[in-house]
């Protein structure tokens, strides 16, 4: 089976390397020619165009910034669907709009190509180590044929439902993550302003009923240390995910007041030019408004984590 991979950025490069390591014959493409060099050196082939890659591959993975790029790669004048063979499969790993995925799926059906929306969760580190959740939407019987390939890039391969269901699950996950962290920043700021030192406060809330599920651990490496560069998940990308979640909610007439508050902080942070900082950087705005400074060292954070 020949595997094609388009999009060799922070997420895509790790997943593509794992496909090579698993022994798959790999052909790659990216808008940045230099991104393909390490893969060629490791034994992959380079495709000069998207259409060339689609012509060669039995299964294609795309890891792209968002819906616009996915549509262009798939449906453009020299896109995948101009060359992909009937009976081949396309797994879009992009965090995408369910509506866009369904639109592209209809075009794929007409060409005899099986499209799956397959957004991933785990960040660049998970992409490198294979510790990724992959949320799958699409035809379940067809999915079963390709699951072994997905096992090379993720450890939680989760079939969610029909086309669009994968991205619905991913948007629910990311929207929850964003809004929960904002709530944590607010109450944490209150506790510090009330006179409790950040380290003992964080340790205390980690041992409570919610804290024991490790809800509060996700703020340890960024927010608590004031370490937002380089980003593990850039604010501009997280903002795209939040926007897509709110668009989906609007389509379904679902009130999202908590998420809208988080979006307002994201907007303010973006207006400050923080787009390439980590997605936890808007939490700093909560501290600013309360005139509170919170910064633990990496050693202090690790000492608290070591306590259990």
From TrEMBL:
SUPFAM superfamilies: 6-phosphogluconate dehydrogenase C-terminal domain-like, NAD(P)-binding Rossmann-fold domains
Keywords: NAD, Oxidoreductase
Domain 3-hydroxyisobutyrate dehydrogenase-like NAD-binding, first and last residues per copy: 164-284
Gene Ontology molecular function, alphabetical: oxidoreductase activity
Domain 6-phosphogluconate dehydrogenase NADP-binding: 2-161
Entry EC number(s): 1.1.-.-
Oxidoreductase listed as a keyword: yes
Entry keyword annotation includes Cytoplasm: no
Family in the record: Belongs to the HIBADH-related family.
PANTHER family in the cross-refs: 3-HYDROXYISOBUTYRATE DEHYDROGENASE-LIKE 1, MITOCHONDRIAL-RELATED
Protein name, entry field: NAD(P)-dependent oxidoreductase
Organism from which the protein derives: Rhodococcus artemisiae
């Amino acid at each position: 089976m020949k595997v094609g991979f388009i999009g060799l950025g922070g997420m895509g490069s790790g997943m593509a390397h794992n496909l090579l390591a698993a022994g798959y014959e790999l052909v790659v493409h990216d808008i940045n020619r230099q991104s393909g060099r390490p893969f060629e050196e490791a034994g992959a082939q380079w495709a000069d165009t998207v259409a060339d890659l689609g012509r060669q591959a039995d299964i294609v993975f795309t890891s792209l910034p968002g819906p616009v790029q996915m549509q262009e790669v798939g449906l453009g004048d020299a896109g995948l669907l101009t060359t992909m063979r009937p009976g081949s499969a396309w797994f879009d790993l992009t965090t995408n709009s369910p509506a866009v995925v369904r639109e592209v799926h209809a075009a794929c059906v007409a060409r005899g190509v099986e499209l799956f929306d397959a957004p991933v969760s785990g960040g660049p580190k998970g992409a490198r180590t294979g510790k990724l959740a992959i949320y799958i939407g699409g035809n379940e019987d067809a999915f079963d044929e390709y699951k072994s390939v997905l096992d090379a890039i993720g450890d939680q391969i989760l079939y969610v439902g029909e086309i669009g269901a994968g991205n619905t699950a991913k948007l629910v996950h990311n929207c929850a993550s964003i809004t929960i962290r904002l709530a944590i920043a607010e109450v944490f700021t209150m506790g510090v302003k009330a006179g409790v030192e950040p380290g003992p406060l964080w340790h205390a809330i980690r041992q409570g009923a919610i804290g024991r599920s490790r809800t509060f651990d996700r703020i340890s490496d960024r927010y608590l240390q004031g370490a937002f560069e380089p980003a593990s998940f850039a604010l501009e990308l997280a903002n795209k995910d939040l926007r897509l979640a709110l668009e989906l909610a609007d389509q379904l007439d679902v009130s999202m007041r908590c998420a809208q508050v988080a979006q307002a902080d994201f907007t303010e942070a973006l207006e400050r030019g923080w787009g390439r900082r980590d997605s936890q950087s808007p939490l700093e705005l909560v501290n600013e408004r309360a005139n509170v400074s919170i910064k633990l060292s990496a050693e202090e954070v690790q000492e608290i984590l070591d306590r259990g």
